[in-house]
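Record now logged for everyone:
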Amino acid sequence: MSLVRLRPPPVHATELAPSPRRLPLSTNASHYLVWVLALLVIVGPVVPVVAASLWSTPLYESGGHLTLDNFHALLTDDGWWTAVVNSILFAALNTVGSVLVGVSCAVFLTRTNIPGRRTLTTLLLVPIALPGLVLIIGWAAMWTPAGFASSWLRTNTFLGMPVDLYSIPGMAMVAMSVAAPTIFLLCRGTLLSIDPALEDAARTLGAGPLRSLVSVSLPLLRPAITNAALLVFALSMEVLGLPLILGFSNKINLISTYLYDHWVNEAQQGLVSAGAVFLLVAVSGLLVLRNRLVGDTARFTTTTGKPTGVRTLRLGPSRWIVAALIGLFLLVSVVVPLAGVFLTAFTSILSPFISPWSVLTLGNFSAVFENPLYTNSIVNSLLIAAIGGALTTVAIAVLSVIAHRSRFRFRGSLQQGMMWPRMMPALVTGMAFFWSFALLDKSGAVRASLWGIGIAFAVRSLALGYSAFYPALTGIGADLDNAARTSGATWWKAMRTVVLRLVTPAMGASFVLLFVAMLNDAEPAVFLVTDQTPVLGLTMLQLAATSIGGSVAALGVIQMVITLVVLGAGRALLGVRPRA
């Protein structure tokens, strides 16, 4: 019996597995490259602002030397200190009023049985979903001394608007209509998480329903109230549209309008850069203080068993009075201003002495679509929002997986870097990129293009998109991408084929929010826009600063419709809701 030795079949060249293609960069090296590029784009542009404030000539001119003259000129200007005092007063009034309204609405609409809670809550949150400039236009059309609603009330009743909108208290009242819903959302989440058993314990000791609410639940709101108050105060220091529209007639300057006027009308770029440094330090300091205070919330944690669910307190007949007061506030601050925008847009003249039904027209919209400035503004904003929103979403996804799913040494700085734009005032963002482009692009081609404005808008909105994206990313277990790695996938391939596919809905939600934010943004474009690159938000702001006409209102309606359509589509497809 002979033995037959088995031989393996011959291996042909075509059957050989292809050798893996070497990547030009290792994973760690690519992380360093992305990290450097991200910090240069996000944080780097602040450096030219500081340099411009310390240089004797504009950075795009040759020559010059280090100097403190810009800061000396700023600090010795009485107009600057007037703007600082006005800004602090405006921010304080807005913060106090917004906290009172927002906290009260959160308590009554969340924890009591007042009638119409769902309708009132929806109306209260409307300003968050709408462009802020639209509400300002509506307030100006209806509640200024010569506005439609104010004039009608004075003519036909003994009532009237008790506060002049062309004043700091009046501007603070308008700002409250946007800030109060933000405080409402922050406090509402805390109230919903409080176990009613704590209030029941107070009831067993003889406390009434309202006393148990005030003595038990309200103290637990202190972190949320502190968080919201500091946030509103910081954002009030940088607002531009409101004082530019309502403060212009009485020559009321805030820090933002002081910087805007001295840049646009007086071309004092070094002085404005020095003022921008002060504004950046002030706003950043407030937001850092907010983060530190909100971070120490352990002493406000309650220890209970399983929560028994939210329980409403019965107010009795007084619930109708509370509902009426909240409804009156929403009527004045939301319903009437929105009606004013639509009435101004669809009438040839808005006057309390002429029936609006007799002067209905579509002429304002025709004027918008026949004017190249307006149509170019709409098209440019849509392009920036669509292309910029998509590219920014991809950038956020890449930065987030490095920051949260890798062992990169400096991943923590990426997390902080993506939140940094929230600390940078919008005007400073625009100025930072203006000086950066002036230094890096001597031809001015980038600054004069939509790409320059789009980059500034993208950095400005980065924190918003990141806040919408990273919770979904952190909710995915690391075992999935680790399994891909053990199967031979590189880190980047594991992120691309496993993690990013699972967070595609979150990327869609981030894109929707970025689209809306970049469509409605205006302040960063102040220093970058040219005659060939108008954008919708800034065009409306500049027109509204001189007069509230039908064309401006028509642009506001168009902006509002686009915003609501995009948010509605996002909510239907992805569950996206506007957030503070």
Summary: Confidence is low (pLDDT under 50) at residues 11-20, 296-308. Residues 182 and 580 are 6 Å apart (CA to CA).
